[in-house]
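Lab manual, section 2.4: Encoding a predicted structure.

Procedure: take the sequence of the chain (865 residues), apply the prediction step described in section 2.3, and record the output as structure tokens. A sample record is shown.
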Amino acid sequence: MNSMEIREKFLNYFKKNGHEIVSSSSLIPAQDPTLLFTNAGMNQFKDLFLGNEKRHYKTASTIQKCVRAGGKHNDLEEVGFTNRHLTFFEMMGNFSFGDYFKNDAIKYAWEFLTKEVNINPKDLKITIYKDDDQAYEIWNKIIGIPVDKIYRLGEKENFWQMGDTGPCGPCTEIHFDNGIDVGCKTDHCDPSCSCGRFTEIWNLVFMQFERQQDGKLIPLKQTGIDTGMGFERLNMILQKKDSVFQTEIFAPIIKKIENLTKLSYDKSDKNTKAAFHVLCDHVRSSSLLIADGCLPSNEGRGYVLRKIIRRAALFAQKLSDNPKLFSSLSKEFISYFSLIYKELKDNEKLILATLDDEITKFSENLKSGKVILEKYIEENKKNNKNYLSGEQVFKLYDTYGFPTELTKVIANEQDFTLDMSGFNEEMKKQQEQSGKKSKDKIIVLDIPEDINTKFLGYEKLELESEINFILKEKDFSWIVTKESPFYVESGGQISDKGWLNIDNKVYEIEEFYKSANTQNPAIAVKIKNANLKLGDKVKCIVDYYSRSNTAKNHTATHLLQAALVQILGKHIQQAGSFVNSDFFRFDYTSNNAISKQDTEKIENIVNQKIQENIKLNIFYTTLQEARKSGVTALFGEKYNPEQVRVVQVPGFSAELCGGTHVNSTGDIGLFKIESDVALSSGVRRITGITGPKAIETFQNSFDTIKALVEKFKVKPEQIITAIEKQTENIDNLNSQIKQLKKQILKAQIPEWQNQVKHVGKIPFLFLNLQDFDSAQFKEICESIETKAPGFYFIVNINFKTPDQISFFGYVSKNFEKQIDLKLFSKDILAKFGLKGGGSNTLIQGGGKQPESNIEQEIIKWLKAI
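Recorded output:
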């Protein structure tokens, strides 16, 4: 049975049993700070289990993309060296949200395994949580599993939780017995043994609790079922293979590696096979993470992705010196796996460019880093140390971009270990120095859950409403009204500006706040203290000018994204945005700057749509329907599956968006891109303006061009040529001036040499110069030195800053021991407020023009030597 057949059988089985088939969510968890990556099928249903969200179905089934390569669930270091560990895998699961519980969950799992895919019941063993008598009764009495095939295990094995906090509960697991000839081969071996005899197939979690920050278990409002079965492991069992990498899932990648490296997988030794396995797995996880909007960086998810790619690059070098080996494997993976996940094909250009760029950067660091690492190993061997110190590991990480996992791989080849506690201490020091420990202040108001606000800001900018909550803070009050026209910062759009009219007295709103309740949030505004009580009527007024111009900029970003995709390709994704009344920023995924020609094309497309004055169509639909119709969604953003808001520019753009927008594109007026800059690896930022700001910029530019036309007496299109010619003339004149100065300087050297006089035992020359280039000072001194060695001090005044001087002190080597420039700096320069630095024979710097005679002070100092 191949993987596509297994996939179809699973989903069809649960569909016929009344389950809603739900698409896999993104690998980037939507607004969930507790998770780096989606690591289980239930992640997208977390709010359903918590009772914070409702959908039209109570049972569901999905095959979910998962990554376990960071945080609590981290399999990265194991990948390549075991038969089952993967960073990317797919989790098959069925779920119940207050519908069926243990009885049906166990029945479904057993029926699918033994009847749908025909696994022999004799090969299956069951584990349950030690205190779960109900699960035991179901397995033994209803399903008919013999007592000797049911094992009661502890919390470590049979109590499941998603993270440090969140839904959790006891679980029962179904294991496949590979036979007594596998693993430890003892009679008492059971599924808790890690010898490899038993392969966990399916984990059935009975969601009964929510774990709090303090570890307490609180009963959920409704019980639920969360099951997870590793797709790759099931394939391994059904295809009778000893490793997931031997299944048909990985066959195309292994074949591609063989073709590119001319190596045989089957004939390879253990270490070479490990390299095959690492590339097979890492190409899947890195390609899909990039497709879902994650890009390499030095923090968080991006850093984990960077570790995966760099680990792959390291193992790729064991098989081939082809720097594009990994991206070639990605191209192969995309070619067949995009049939399941179309986002791979949509983002193919971005994926391949990102992988090549990251590996190229790492290869450069790897060469120099390896030299340092080998040096450390040799030094430590001489000192009878078989480990790398924390300081050494940190140096490799911080200076050469070596993730500790890679250092460990290379060190292990030399039987070296890493001092990770020392490394952590070095990391802590750096964080303290860089101030990374500080966090932005986050406002959290204690507003009861039953207090909420109806947002009417899409339709109204002014309304009268009743106060239903007041929170006083010294000189200010937070006020919640039953209805509100105020938009609170979200999705990149800043909060409105506005006022409250209370008994004909106008209060400017200082700050806005929206509670975390996703279903019915409260909107609070902060004003200076007023005489208010619950039930009072207030008039809420939005600043029309600010809202109007913000809407222009927001709609413009939608037009911009569609134009970017049209000109640059489907791989372009939004990576963030910021919209206010003055300008907009739009971050997008790309490794290359937009050319001048493409910038003009993009601007022309957007301005054409503005001129067409297309009326926007804003409507609500389900998330599934929106996706079917090709509506653009922002990766990492959380959407209500039952109702999403679509902002559509008919025939051109459609995005999920909760922001405020113009009625018709013509309201925007004018669109102009101001800049396109690199933000980080694989991410760029466009800054632009619209409406009044764009017109103001146009008018200022027009006035500037008009002035230049009159100045140079040329046509507008000839201005750049005229300026370039003028610049060329200035450069030529400056060059001539430089040559003349050199000639003057050459002529003055003999005169200056004759001016050198002895002060005590030291030949000394003080020069007052004007408008000399500081780069000439050393040349002057060295020229004087040829006939009159000694101590020279130059003071130079620039006519542009007459109150400032630059200085240069020079000592010939003959007098180096007699004149201490450090002491000179302390005694003389500090006295006149001058600052500088240098060496034993040279000192230079600057400061304010001294009020007294610095030459006389130097002469006194020299006489005292």
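Check your result against the sample. Residues 719-755 form the longest helix (37 residues).
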